[in-house]
């Protein structure tokens, strides 16, 4: 893949546009230069699927950020077991007494079986927590991958060889297995074995573990790109003018790598959302009283034959989010790299 | 070809060696004493020391690792269990059975799950992708593309339960997923695994449909395909012998990776369908701080990934003679 070449693409696009707009009486406007980012944005705006999925993804992030506010307006919280104050909410078998998982005007998404928490606020906070963890892990992974990948590619030689081998090994690791095996180790670094693990530590450990195994693929990709770029004239020129390696990597090379970085990021975030939920589902990620997408699905799994409704909400929400994010990712890719074929 | 294989196998051994060493180190990075677990309540220091000796953990960590390695290649002597022939992966801390036997016991489940699902999703995915590429822009293409987009956004821990709810609990069309050895009862083996295969297939098929379609679309617009058509070869001949051969490479690569990952433990799948395979063994061994078992499972999982990588590279060269193995 070649880096975007604004000099070739920009004038073409501009003449195109001005030809469309110009009426016979009009003097052709002075063609203004447009940055590649601007061009990509224009392409993205024309993609209806992309804009729609961006709205859905945006909606998820908005409710994640505004969860406390929404819960306040709604008047409930995800921790209170409403059934213990009002036993009539659950039937004698500890399942919601109302139809459809106890959905009502008071409890919009119904009542959780057994404990009797409010499903709506639990889901709100679950989305908030899961997205927060996945986002933090993505940011950390991308930063690690970019720094290691570009540095290795630029320096070459022994550093590159060493980093290359580390990446090879990391990529042959069975990742889910190592997430599971690594979590207790990270806990062990911070708390004594018999102490209770605080929630913030669980979240931090998840972020660290996800990033520790995730950076390799993005680093490998960028390393390859940098290997091609570093032979180009502008790097030579920078070197001749006496720029430091750090400057060359971050000021000269990095701007040429934004496209693959953004594309990788859009692939990574939904993958991390599902991975984080998967770990919670297996019981090694976040655990019960903390609202979390995977915790909710694991809870739902324990009584899915009796009350499927409880599981449908987190499950469908996740499918919608991941689907919208995948579509958004495709559109972003098309916008940034119009030559690529899917 | 031979030199390529030798080189790659040596490389794979090195990677497995490093992975086992990292697992070993990771395990002991947390302060824990496996002897304490099997010692029970009335634990005297003498008992503890004896158990440590029996389990073979009365040495420093590097020495323990050395003994473990020795066990794998030439066998080793256990104070508690006597001599253990190579390949000796040790005895489980949790229930004192040989690790090798336990893994061999669990492996058929995981292999059946992986290969069965792989057969389904490969046929469905490639077939749908081919149809989509042939009917570019038509209804069938759009349908296959949207279905594959939806499929790739599903998660096994959600779809699995939904499928079990509707097809097993409500409609009763399929059997509750379970494991019966093929040699015991082939019908029960098949019906117990059918649902997991189908659910795994739904999720994996998507990727293959998308990839097959885009690869074929690209290949079909190449000059060599037009030339083949122009010199009068039949449509199907051109499609399968020319375009498809050119399109296969990336699909083989991804298939190898997927198969390796599945064999290394479809952990979430096995958990969802309560199948007693390698994946659940792995989760259990982490829960019980069972180092020998964890090491065995990790090596198997990493080994599967590395093995299929080599296979993929070799197959790649067979498909595309332009690639020279060196």
TrEMBL record, chain A:
The chain crosses the membrane at residues 51-71, 131-157, 169-191, 203-222, 267-288, 308-329. It is a multi-pass membrane protein. Keywords: Cell membrane, Membrane, Transmembrane, Transmembrane helix, Transport. Its main location: membrane. It is found in: Cell membrane. Residues 127-329 form the ABC transmembrane type-1 domain. GO terms for biological process: transmembrane transport. One of its GO terms (cellular component) is plasma membrane. Residues 1-34 are annotated as: Disordered. SUPFAM superfamilies: MetI-like. Belongs to the binding-protein-dependent transport system permease family. This is ABC transporter permease.
TrEMBL record, chain B:
Its main location: membrane. The keyword Transmembrane helix applies. It is found in: Cell membrane. Residues 107-316 form the ABC transmembrane type-1 domain. One of its GO terms (biological process) is transmembrane transport. The chain crosses the membrane at residues 9-28, 113-134, 146-167, 187-206, 251-273, 293-319. It holds the Pfam family BPD_transp_1_N. It comes from the Bacteria. It is a multi-pass membrane protein. Keywords: Cell membrane, Membrane, Transmembrane, Transmembrane helix, Transport. GO terms for cellular component: plasma membrane. The keyword Oxidoreductase does not apply. Belongs to the binding-protein-dependent transport system permease family. This is ABC transporter permease. The lineage of its organism: Bacteria, Bacillati, Actinomycetota, Actinomycetes, Kitasatosporales.
């Amino acid at each position: 893949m070649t880096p975007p070449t604004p000099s070739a693409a920009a004038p073409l696009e501009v003449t195109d546009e001005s030809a469309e707009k110009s009426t016979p009486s009009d003097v052709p406007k002075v063609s203004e230069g447009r940055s590649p980012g601007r061009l990509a944005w224009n392409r993205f705006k024309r993609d209806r699927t992309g804009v729609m999925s961006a709205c859905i993804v945006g909606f998820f992030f908005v409710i994640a950020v505004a969860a406390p506010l929404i819960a306040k307006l709604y008047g409930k919280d995800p921790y209170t077991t409403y059934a213990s104050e009002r036993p009539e909410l659950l039937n004698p078998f500890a399942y919601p007494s109302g139809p459809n998982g106890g959905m009502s005007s008071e409890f919009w998404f119904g009542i959780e079986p057994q404990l009797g928490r409010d499903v709506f606020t639990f889901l709100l906070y679950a989305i908030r927590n899961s997205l927060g963890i996945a986002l933090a892990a993505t940011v950390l992974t991308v930063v690690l991958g970019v720094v290691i990948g570009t540095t290795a590619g630029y320096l070459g030689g022994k550093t590159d060889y060493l980093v290359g081998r580390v990446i090879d090994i990391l990529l042959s690791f069975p990742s889910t297995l190592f997430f599971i095996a690594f979590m207790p180790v990270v806990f062990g670094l911070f708390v004594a074995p018999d102490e209770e693990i605080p929630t913030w530590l669980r979240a931090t450990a998840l972020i660290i573990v996800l990033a520790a195994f995730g950076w390799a693929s993005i680093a490998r990709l960028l390393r390859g790109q940098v290997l091609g770029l570093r032979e180009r004239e502008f790097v030579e020129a920078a070197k001749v003018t006496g720029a430091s390696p750090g400057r060359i990597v971050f000021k000269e090379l990095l701007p040429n790598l934004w496209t693959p970085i953004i594309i990788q990021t859009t692939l990574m975030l939904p993958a991390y959302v599902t991975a984080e939920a998967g770990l919670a589902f297996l019981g090694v990620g976040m655990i019960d009283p903390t609202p979390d997408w995977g915790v909710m699905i694991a809870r739902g799994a324990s009584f899915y034959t009796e009350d499927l409704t409880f599981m449908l909400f987190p499950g469908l929400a996740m499918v919608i989010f991941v689907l919208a994010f995948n579509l958004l990712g495709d559109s972003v890719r098309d916008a940034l790299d119009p030559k690529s074929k899917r | 070809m031979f030199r390529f294989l030798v080189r790659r196998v040596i490389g794979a051994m090195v990677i497995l060696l490093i992975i086992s060493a990292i697992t070993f180190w990771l395990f002991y990075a947390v302060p824990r004493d496996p002897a304490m677990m099997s010692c029970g309540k009335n634990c005297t220091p003498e008992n503890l020391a004896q158990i440590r000796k029996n389990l073979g953990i009365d040495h420093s960590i590097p020495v323990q690792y050395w003994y473990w390695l020795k066990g794998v290649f030439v066998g080793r002597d256990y104070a508690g269990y006597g001599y253990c022939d190579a390949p000796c992966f040790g005895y489980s801390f949790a229930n004192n059975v040989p690790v090798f036997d336990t893994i061999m016991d669990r492996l058929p489940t995981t292999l059946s799950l992986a290969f069965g699902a792989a057969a389904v999703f490969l046929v469905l995915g490639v077939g749908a992708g081919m149809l989509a590429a042939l009917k570019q822009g038509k209804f069938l293409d759009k349908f296959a593309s949207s279905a594959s987009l939806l499929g790739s956004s599903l998660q096994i821990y959600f779809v699995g339960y939904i499928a079990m709810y509707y097809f097993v609990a409500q409609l009763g069309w399929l059997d509750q997923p379970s494991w019966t050895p093929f040699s015991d009862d082939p019908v029960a083996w098949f019906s117990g695994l059918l649902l997991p295969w189908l659910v795994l297939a739904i999720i994996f098929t998507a990727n293959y449909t998308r990839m097959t379609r885009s690869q074929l679309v690209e290949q079909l617009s190449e000059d060599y395909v037009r030339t083949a058509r122009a010199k009068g070869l039949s449509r199907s001949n051109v499609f399968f012998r020319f375009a498809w051969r050119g399109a296969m490479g990336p699909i083989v690569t991804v298939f190898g990776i997927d198969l390796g990952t599945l064999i290394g433990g479809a952990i979430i799948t096995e958990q969802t369908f309560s199948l007693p395979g390698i994946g659940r063994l792995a989760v259990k061994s982490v829960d019980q701080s069972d180092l020998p078992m964890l090491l065995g499972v990790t090596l198997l999982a990493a080994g599967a990934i590395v093995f299929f990588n080599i296979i993929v590279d070799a197959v790649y060269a067979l498909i595309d003679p332009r690639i020279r193995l060196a």
